[in-house]
Here is the input.
Amino acid sequence: MMEAVLKSSSDLAAMGKALFPGESAEYRAARQALLADEIEFRRHMTRLTEQRRALPPGPVIEKAYRFKDENGFEVGLIDLFGEKDTLVSYLWMYGPQRERPCPMCTNWLGAVNGNAADIKQRVALKILGRSPVERQFLFAQERGWSDLDFIQTVGDDYADDLGLLNPDGSESAAIIVFRRDGDAVRLFWASEMTMEMADPGQDPRDAPDIASLWSILDLTPEGRPPHWYPKLRY
Here is the structure.
């Protein structure tokens, strides 16, 4: 099947119209040029998504990692899939050394909680933590999260093998997607943008940025502030 021929992003951008009266010609010209770039960005994001889906089969997870599920039962990695073929997991920064969870992890999970019921129609979604599962649930209740499934990692092999344990005993966060392959589990995709890969003057982050906080602030005149981060309380 032949691929569709895409119209020029500049031609498409020319279809843009002023929303309010009184804009200057300078504003319209700059906005139209930006719109063309936004269309190209959308197309590039689509290509990235297609490349991700076309990845060759990832490695089989040979190590028998153990977890405690939301009911306190010890389970294996494949058990976290339930009836789904894909598992989206997020190891959040709430290990036993932390009095309170990471504020940025908390901010992100708050947004995910609002979409979790829909996400779980398509894939398994599990939030992994090094703290006891009961401790994770207590914080979830404090925040009013009702649709997230918290899982405890048994021991630190999982976090350690992924290079997520820090010298001070804390952990770093990670999004990892697994795929069921018969009775085996394969890695599908994991975030691999490390601190060292950040561009000058920017926080390390994935592309696209899946944190709705920053996506919204990126739409504003001030943009994302360079030295501001969310807090647990205001």
Notes: The radius of gyration is 21 Å. The mean pLDDT is 92. The first helix runs from residue 9 to 13.
